[in-house]
Design goal:
Distance between the termini: 28 Å
Number of helices: 5
Radius of gyration: 20 Å
Bound molecules: 2-amino-4-trifluoromethylsulfanyl-butyric acid, cobalt (II) ion
Oligomer: single chain
Order of helices and strands: HHHEEEEEHHEEEEEEEEEE
Shape: globular
Length: 297
Amino acid sequence: MMLKNDAIKVGRNDPCPCGSGKKYKRCCLNSKTPKPVNLEKLYQQKYDIRLKHPKDVEGIRAAGCLVVETLDLMEKNVRVGITTDELNTIAHEFAVKNNAVPAPLNYRGFPKSICTSINEVICHGIPENRALNDGDIINVDITLIYKNYYADASKTYFVGTPGPEAQKIVSVAAESLKAAMKMLVPGNTIGDIGWAIQSVAEGEKCSVVREFVGHGVGFDFHESPHVPHYGRKGDGVVLVPGMVFTVEPMINLGKADLFVASDNWTAITCDRKLSAQFEQTYLITEDGFESLTPFDL
Ligand code: MF3
Ligand code: CO
Ligand code: CO
């Protein structure tokens, strides 16, 4: 892959881009025969980012396939009257039947296998004995561990017939993720992703949640780097092949401000207006990206 000129700025005291682990000034800075850049070591040392090898990608892709199948199953079951607990049971049983483990269950004390976030709930809603109503929107977020690999994706669904506000926020959330995908090319930066999302969302007079970000994923649930859904073009880590991370913009119809409910999980818009989200797990390839949790937006 080609890095833009000076795409990776190396300071005298930074780890040397050759991956030796020594400081740049004590290694290749003054060397007449610089060693080739070892991106894997450099990204590990400089950013704590673990680039994925083809066999890892295969594993994450397999986990992602099950995640997408679970989302499809959710789509079939989302209807007026079903409870979020029932959706949780359906997703949990599907995972177990397929030798996968739902990553949220017991994660930092999270009590269920999926997140179900209705209307003004931004994310991390806990499934409960609450029935869906006509006109609700619900985000279902699925993370599975399959053969030790993690994949993470979510979709927002309409319950019954959506009103105009529901249609608007779901469409802006989907469009913002589509805009982000256009940025997923080696040489672009993490900041380009956030910039694209923010441009779409704010261009539609919606707002971008700041408190939760996308994240590296694959060997673990949440890895480096953070992937903010706002930002400036050219800021942040340069995308390189082998990076695997989620992009998962949470877009609010009103203001971006949120609070977390007394259950310590459920994040809710302060103005109680609608919030929507789509999430996928992406691999940066030599010439662009591949979704490891592919579905149409
Ligand atoms: N799946 C969420 C994410 O996209 C994280 C959920 S954490 C949980 O990162 F504990 F609530 F499951
Ligand atoms: Co995620
Ligand atoms: Co998720």
